[in-house]
Write a structure and sequence with these properties.
UDP N-Acetylglucosamine Acyltransferase, domain 1, 204 residues, eight-stranded mixed sheet, six-stranded mixed sheet, 2 helices, 2 domains
């Protein structure tokens, strides 16, 4: 399998490292003002035709990643998962296409991970969690059992979620927040316990 990594920023380094650790050959396509190489891999430009059958979008911003994911589906490439060899994913868990699972991640029994999601370094996703398409669970975040994370939501670094709570679609949960109750969609939520403080689209 030859994998195209779409994106050439910091997150692309992590994805490329995980893919190579898993024995997957990769090429990297830039999406803007990008370096000439990522971990020694030359960065292709949009006009160049990639030698790949599969792709994964390595862009941290959820909305941008969702847009690029749909674009490359339309171009006929198949989305592929990249799972770091040190991650632990239960046999009964379901992982959607185009999802990245970083080093040290634990995904427990019957968790359901959507398409084009990011489970970042060392996060834990416990039994029966539901993670929506294009969502991002940040480094070191911990989701207890049966937590629901909506489409495109971001759970920040070190945040934690109590059993059974839900985060609405396209919300942003701040670093270190404690999610002890349901949170609405399209909201920036911070604190212990986490509370919505503004709409995602409002100026900060």
């Amino acid at each position: 399998m030859r994998l195209l990594i779409v994106g050439a920023g910091g997150h692309a380094k992590v994805v490329a490292d995980a893919a190579r650790s898993a024995g997957v050959g990769v090429s990297v396509l830039g999406t803007g003002k990008d370096p000439d190489s990522v971990l020694g891999i030359p960065v292709l430009r949009e006009a160049e035709r990639p030698d790949a059958d599969f792709f994964i979008v390595a862009v941290g911003d959820n909305r941008s990643r969702a847009t690029l994911y749909e674009r490359w589906l339309e171009r006929g490439l198949q989305p592929a998962n990249v799972v770091h060899p040190s991650a632990v994913v239960a046999d009964s868990a379901r992982v959607g296409p185009g999802t990245f699972i970083a080093a040290g991640v634990v995904v427990n029994a019957e968790a359901d991970i959507g398409a084009n999601a990011i489970l970042n370094t060392g996060c834990t996703v416990d039994h029966d969690c539901r993670i929506g398409d294009h969502a991002h669970i940040g480094p070191g975040a911990s989701l207890c059992g049966a937590v629901g994370i909506g489409e495109g939501a971001l759970v920040g670094v070190g945040a934690c979620a109590s059993p059974g709570v839900a985060v609405g679609a396209w919300s942003v949960v701040g670093a270190g927040a404690a999610i002890t109750g349901d949170l609405p969609g399209n909201a920036v939520c911070i604190g212990v316990p986490a509370r919505p403080v503004r709409n995602v689209d409002d100026a900060s």
